[in-house]
């Protein structure tokens, strides 16, 4: 038989004490569980995060490291090796982040990381790597240091290097879509020191020959340092003196070919049709200059081709494209020389530049350049197609001028502005073509006396005669009929003061408004505070010929984002008489030299503009059109338009007709 001990039930107090003990044990267990969960903050994940943070900052003292064999590595050594491995990118550490929770297996762990470099020019280079960790008896996680953390193809002693591959630069195209700059024949003229018997004599003869080239070489070839260069060079070297276009070389070949020591190399270079072809408008392409490198160290490198000025400068980013980048590894050899290992880590192919298409017409531009070729003063000629406002030519002189006066000059228009004043007067019914208007020798407004060129007087004549003969006093007397802002309103109808977008900077004019009676009188014949550019006046002239203003067009691809809308239709009853008067300027007025210009009837207006307080100091102008070509000629300090601007206009029209 079994003996059973009877069960004894305790008191209520005892049972309560027991329940409290169990609760305390449970609480202890829960607390222990909570501590285990919190300990993940000190696990491999936090160690990886500390490593990534220290990598970016260049300070890894908060992280422990061991080799794959388990030997401890000082944090300072890892910091140094990271910098050495980064090579050319050491000063721009990558952006780093952990890509997930580490995978733990006993006392080892593996964590994924994302490495994102920003290469020169902002090109991204991103890839994934893994960081291995281990923990010892102390419970501390340490990074297993190995160069492959930086990149899987790197080993100890390697360093990252970046190589740039220049992109093919695109060209500026003409209105027909053909490249303006193409490979053209040149001749490099040089000397071989060992064959030069008399340096001074050869230099003197070369200088005379170079000065005989037409159009003149601007700036002239400087031979001052030639004797020193020859003395410093190897006896058999080719010491270059100048590179000439083939047509320039042919002019002087007979003078220089047999000189002692001269040598010649025929090559091809990317060049415009002529040396002066739209030079200021197009700009130039040169090797990166010091200020380019300083302003954009991430964009340019020594030897890069960079656009300067004109369209080449404005659209440089589009034309140059994006260079290709190749990331490689390098290693120092036994002699300390660093050489590529042959391992390519990353490649981005160059992106060729995109062309910029313009409206320029080669024949018209050549005619404009030829017209200015003999002008020694600063001058500009801009031509616009009447039909659509396309800029056909923009020439600046003398020589291959660097400043685009055709677009950016801010100068008084002189009597060419009578075209605008006359349109305003006709619009208001203040004058008629044959209505009588007095042209006295002088006319005084508020104590200011106005006179005509050479102090002429016509008496009372039809308004058309006042216009054709360019009578200042007649227009000064008519100024009140325009009102304080009537001239500005008419100017705006012809595109002046309007905000244009044609792919290159241009001054659109500033017309006098709201001035004193004397200022209004001066403004009526293009003096006072009114300022214009040759392009603005050519566009206004084209508007008269067309019957409506259209914004000039220069760059058509990429298309301007904010081209100005067309102006209002000009009143036929006003613009037709104006055209008649502008024809009479040529047939019976101040520009009769253009009567026999080939190519059809010429309409126009001459202008002489005072630019300071001395009436003898004047710019010269002519604006007009023939057929579908409107144009403006400006000569700085040109004096009488009949002796400077009109002859240039004639040369332009004759060259255009012959093209």
Automatic annotation (TrEMBL):
Q: Drop me one GO molecular function for this one.
A: peptidoglycan L,D-transpeptidase activity
Which residue ranges run through the membrane? none
Query: From what superkingdom does this record's organism come?
Result: Bacteria
GO terms classed as biological process: cell division; cell wall organization; response to antibiotic
Domain NTF2-like N-terminal transpeptidase spans what residues?
Answer: 44-158
Looking up Gene3D superfamilies in the UniProt record yields: DD-peptidase/beta-lactamase superfamily, Penicillin-binding protein 2a (Domain 2)
Q: Where is the signal peptide?
A: 1-31
- Please give the GO cellular component terms listed in this UniProt entry: plasma membrane
Question: What species was this sequence derived from?
Answer: Micromonospora carbonacea
* Homology family: Belongs to the transpeptidase family.
Instruction: State the protein's name.
Output: Cell division protein FtsI/penicillin-binding protein 2
């Amino acid at each position: 038989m079994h003996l059973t001990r009877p069960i004894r039930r305790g008191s209520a107090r005892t049972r309560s004490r027991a329940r409290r003990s169990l609760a305390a044990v449970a609480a202890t267990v829960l607390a222990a569980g909570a501590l285990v969960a919190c300990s993940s903050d000190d696990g491999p994940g936090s160690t990886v995060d500390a490593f990534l943070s220290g990598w970016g900052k260049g300070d890894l003292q908060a992280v422990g490291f061991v080799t794959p064999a388990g030997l401890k590595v000082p944090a300072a050594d890892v910091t140094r090796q990271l910098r050495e491995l980064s090579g050319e990118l050491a000063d721009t550490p990558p952006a780093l982040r952990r890509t997930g929770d580490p995978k733990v297996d006993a006392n080892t762990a593996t964590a994924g990381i994302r490495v994102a470099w920003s290469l020169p020019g902002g090109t991204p280079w991103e890839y994934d790597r893994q960081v291995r960790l281990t923990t010892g008896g102390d419970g501390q996680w340490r990074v297993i240091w190995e160069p492959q953390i930086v990149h899987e193809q790197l080993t100890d002693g390697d360093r990252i290097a970046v190589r740039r591959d220049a992109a093919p630069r695109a060209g500026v195209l003409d209105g027909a879509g053909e490249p303006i700059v193409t490979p053209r024949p040149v001749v490099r003229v040089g000397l071989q020191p060992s064959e030069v018997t008399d340096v001074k004599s050869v230099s003197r003869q070369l200088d005379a020959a170079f000065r005989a080239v037409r159009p003149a070489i601007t700036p002239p070839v400087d031979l001052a340092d030639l004797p020193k260069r020859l003395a410093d060079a190897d006896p058999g070297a080719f010491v270059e003196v100048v590179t000439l276009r083939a047509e320039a070389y042919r002019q002087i070949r007979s003078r220089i070919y047999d000189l002692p020591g001269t040598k010649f190399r025929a090559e091809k270079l990317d060049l415009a049709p002529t040396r002066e072809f739209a030079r200021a408008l197009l700009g130039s392409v040169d090797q990166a200059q010091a200020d380019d490198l300083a302003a954009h160290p991430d964009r340019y490198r020594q030897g890069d081709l960079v656009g300067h000025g004109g369209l080449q400068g404005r659209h440089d980013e589009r034309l140059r494209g994006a260079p290709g980048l190749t990331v490689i590894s390098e290693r120092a050899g036994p002699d300390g020389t660093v050489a590529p290992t042959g391992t390519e880590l990353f490649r981005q192919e160059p992106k060729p530049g995109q062309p910029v298409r313009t409206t320029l017409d080669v024949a018209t531009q050549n005619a404009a350049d030829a017209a200015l070729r003999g002008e020694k003063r600063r001058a500009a000629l801009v031509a616009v197609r009447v039909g659509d406002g396309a800029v056909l030519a923009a020439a600046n002189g003398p020589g291959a001028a660097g400043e685009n006066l055709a677009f950016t000059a801010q100068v008084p228009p002189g009597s060419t502005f009578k075209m605008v004043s006359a349109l305003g007067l006709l619009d208001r019914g203040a004058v008629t073509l044959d209505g009588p208007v007095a042209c006295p020798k002088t006319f005084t407004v508020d104590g200011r006396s106005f006179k005509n060129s050479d102090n002429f007087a016509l008496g009372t004549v039809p308004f058309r005669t006042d216009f054709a003969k360019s009578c200042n006093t007649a227009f000064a007397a008519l100024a009140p009929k325009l009102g304080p802002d009537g001239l500005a309103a008419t100017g705006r109808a012809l595109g002046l003061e309007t905000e244009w977008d044609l792919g290159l900077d241009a001054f659109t004019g500033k017309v006098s408004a709201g001035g004193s009676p004397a200022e209004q009188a001066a403004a009526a014949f293009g003096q006072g505070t009114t300022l214009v550019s040759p392009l603005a006046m050519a566009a206004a002239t084209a508007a008269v010929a067309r019957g409506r203003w259209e914004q000039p067009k220069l760059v058509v691809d990429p298309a301007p984002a904010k081209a100005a809308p067309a102006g209002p239709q000009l009143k036929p009853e006003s613009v037709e008489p104006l055209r008649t008067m502008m024809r009479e300027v040529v047939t019976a007025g101040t520009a009769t030299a253009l009567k026999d210009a080939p190519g059809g009837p010429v309409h126009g207006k001459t202008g002489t503009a005072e630019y300071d307080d001395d009436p003898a100091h004047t710019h010269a102008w002519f604006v007009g059109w023939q057929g579908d070509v409107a144009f403006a000629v400006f000569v700085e300090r040109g004096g009488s338009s009949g002796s400077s601007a009109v002859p240039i206009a004639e040369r332009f029209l004759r060259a255009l007709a012959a093209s």
